[in-house]
Design brief:
Layout lengths: L2 H5 L38 H26 L1
Membrane topology: Single-pass membrane protein
Function: Complex I functions in the transfer of electrons from NADH to the respiratory chain. Accessory subunit of the mitochondrial membrane respiratory chain NADH dehydrogenase (Complex I), that is believed not to be involved in catalysis.
Protein name: NADH dehydrogenase [ubiquinone] 1 alpha subcomplex subunit 13
Length: 72
């Protein structure tokens, strides 16, 4: 069924004829927003991360050197 048949109006209603309905905040307002910066204290230290990365890089370069010797 078309809108004209349902509403007994020719065609769609104009936007100007529609009632104004605007959303607003709930009664009493919104709850406060938590925005504080919470940085966790757990996890490895910067030195531990650096040493692990340095160790992985050193091992990789050792493997590259071994491969170069075999290729020669």
């Amino acid at each position: 069924m078309t809108e004209a048949v349902i509403r007994n109006k020719p065609g769609m209603a104009s936007v100007k004829d529609m009632p104004i309905l605007q959303d607003g905040p709930p009664p009493g307002g919104f709850a406060p927003v938590r925005f504080a910066r919470r940085i966790p204290n757990k996890g490895p230290s910067a030195m531990a991360i650096f040493l692990a990365a340095f160790g992985a890089f050193s091992y990789g370069m050792y493997q590259v050197g071994k491969g170069n010797k075999i290729r020669r």
